[in-house]
Amino acid sequence: MKKLERSLSLISVIAISIGGMLGSGIFVLPGLAAAKTGSSVWLAYLIASLCILPAALSKSELATAMPSSGGTYVYIERAFGPILGTVAGIGLWLSLLLKSSFALVGFGAYLSILISIDPNLTRIVAVFFLGIILFLNVLGVKKVGKVQIVIVALSLICLTLILIFGLPEINKAFLKPFLTNGSMGLMSTVAFVYISYAGVTKVAAIAGEIKNPDKNLPLAMILSLFIMTTIYVSITFVLVGNIPLEALEEDLKPIYTISNMLGGEYVGYAAAIIGVITLISMANSGVLAASRFPFAMARHKLLPTFMSKLHSRYLTPTVTIIITCGVMAIVILFLDVEKIAKLASAFMVMMFMVVNAAVIVLRETSAQWYNPPFKSPLYPYVQIFGIISGIVLLVLLGLMPFLSIVAIFILGITIYFNFGNKTRRTGVLRKYGHRPALYLLYKKKNKEKKGFTPKVAINDNVLDGQFVSNAGVVVPLLGNENSPEMLVEIGAAINRREQIQAINITEVPNQTYLDAFSDDSPIIHSLARRISGLANAKNLDIDFEAVVTHDISETIDELSNQTNCDWLVMGWNGKAHNGILVRNPIGWLVTNINSDFALFKDNGVRHIGKVLLALRPGRKDKNFVAIADRICQFYDASLTLLHVVPSRFSKDIIEDMEATSSAIIAKASSKSEVIIIKSDDPIDAISKISASYDLLILGTPQKDNWINVLFGTGKDKFTQKSACSVLRLTMRDN
């Protein structure tokens, strides 16, 4: 399959992003916006930019994790699944092409300054320019990017000159009243001009065609947003300071008006020319981004496959470009574009909310394949602000958002069930989502899985592709371990049988074909060599394999069943709980796995000579002592059994506890002792004493705090505060 060429430089990407914003938002809307709020219109533009910032940061993160053409559609589809992905793709495609159509029709006000046009022919002229845009897009985005740079440069020069000559001419009397309709009028204007910034995220749709997207994509979004915020705020301030409000309110060509006022007739003509080509540039940028949505959807088999074809020479999605421009031509000629564009733009606000939610879902599930080079700062507060501000904007827009969302949802779902309902892909949320009531009430019961086959591909280029059937311990390696060898060694220390199964697991999105990973990477070769070296050095029987899967949790669960292992041993970062909407894969395994489960938090200790076993109340001490003793024998280490008791405990109770524990630990083969400490803060007590040991062994808490379970914020505080490495054991008979 042919791939899109990465031909866009940073400057081209910034130009395309600015071109997506630098159009009707400044050449047409300021007058209409001023009618809603007065001279405070510049403040409305500033607040709107703050509301769009979370979406820009979130899309930058998502785009660097998934730098492929399709943008928002791809992110939503991978986070929430193909149904919502189809709705998002169709909705964003329609909203962009409608907004671009509106720009082409809107440029008539500026064109009428230059030439005499029959009002009935204005739309035909717009379609003619649409044909030029189609031609440029078919030739390739590299040429589009170069044209965009020239147009954006001319527009910025024009606006800069207006700013330079307009600021000294500001009439303070025109700046009053500041708020004509109070604070609600201001906030309504924020919702009205919000769409002016929507183009800042358009470039995410062409991430597959950007050079060095990890760096250039987020940088282009942030820089273009800053540039456009400066332009919008400063130019609107100059407009309200030079043009009486009653005149500005009805002006659809304010840039021409201010230019004619400051520089005379010929300067006004020059501004009109720039207004015309800038609005065409906006439409051009819209076609470029909009055509990539159906292209990506067709590649994912959510639309007919012929829409995924690339031009043999220019490597551009010619079919979707032609379809997009064809629909735009129909809209320009026959529909009330302005009204429909506003409805579609309201859906775009909703999509930005979903984009912010997608970042939260992908981060909280810890999907292994989700590893963005750029991460949004101040997570999750930025995303939460973006969602809340989006809700406020939708409310302020009234009935329009509801109508647009319902209409596009119906259309998107209809298309999905006609073309994409046979897809087997699922979103991350479906794999890891759950209802909190079921989580709180659910207790794992041993059950046979009838007919379940894990969705995995085994890398068998170097490996034999066979799992040992009698391994005592299975050690899944997810690629985030400090030392895979140390984790496997811990598994060997726990093992009661001869063999150990180590498995490197790579999770990829459902949208990625598993057979694309049939060859072993250099990382797999290196890991196989290191595990083999450990086996030879320690005289261990370790079988190493590598698999690729769509679902880590189900794959690990099934592999533990296939090997009939006693223990599953995994690396751990200390997170203990699941969330209300999403669940960390490890959290799911703790609840569902049939075998005993060990989580190892590696704090960098490489020689284990002293082991501390700290038992929580209610545990069967002998079972934990047996495991701890096995580990001590493996490392030739000493064992200390620790009890931390409240200060209110009497001397008699402590003596009875010490006697009972001494009798249990006396059965251990390793050198051992019992220590009992009085403290009302067991976390602090264990933290301090752990500094004298190399490995702390703990049991799983019997009950999770329900608040932590609901919100997924819980951390095992004993583990977090420990000065040494920690092994947390979950045994099913305890």
Please give a structural write-up.
This protein has 734 residues and is of the alpha/beta class. The chain contains 30 helices and eleven strands. It has three domains: 10-420, Amino acid/polyamine transporter I (Up-down Bundle), CATH 1.20.1740; 437-600, HUPs (Rossmann fold, 3-Layer(aba) Sandwich); 603-734, HUPs (Rossmann fold, 3-Layer(aba) Sandwich). Strands 1-4-3-2-5-6-11-10-7-8-9 form an eleven-stranded mixed β-sheet, with helices on both faces. Helix 1 (10-21) packs parallel to helix 11 (213-242), helix 3 (29-37) runs antiparallel to helix 10 and helix 6 (82-106) packs across helix 16. The longest helix has 30 residues, at 213-242. It is elongated and about 100 Å long. The protein starts with 9 loop residues before the first helix and ends with a strand.
Q: What would you say about this model in short?
A:
With 734 residues, the protein is of the alpha/beta class. Helix content is 57%, strand content 9%.
Question: Helices and strands in order, then pairings?
Answer:
Layout: H1 10-21, H2 24-27, H3 29-37, H4 41-65, H5 72-80, H6 82-106, H7 108-114, H8 122-139, H9 141-166, H10 182-193, H11 213-242, H12 245-248, H13 254-263, H14 265-290, H15 292-299, H16 318-334, H17 337-365, H18 381-396, H19 399-420, H20 428-432, H21 436-441, E1 456-458, E2 473-477, H22 484-494, E3 499-507, H23 522-538, E4 541-549, H24 552-563, E5 567-571, H25 585-592, E6 596-601, E7 610-614, H26 621-635, E8 638-645, H27 651-665, E9 672-678, H28 682-690, E10 695-699, H29 706-711, H30 717-721, E11 725-730
Parallel strand pairs: 2-3, 2-5, 3-4, 5-6, 7-8, 7-10, 8-9, 10-11
Antiparallel strand pairs: 1-4, 6-11
Helix pairs in contact: 1-9, 1-11, 1-14, 3-10, 4-10, 4-11, 4-17, 4-18, 5-6, 5-17, 6-14, 6-15, 6-16, 6-17, 6-19, 7-14, 8-9, 8-14, 8-16, 9-11, 9-13, 9-14, 13-14, 17-18, 17-19, 22-23, 22-26, 24-25
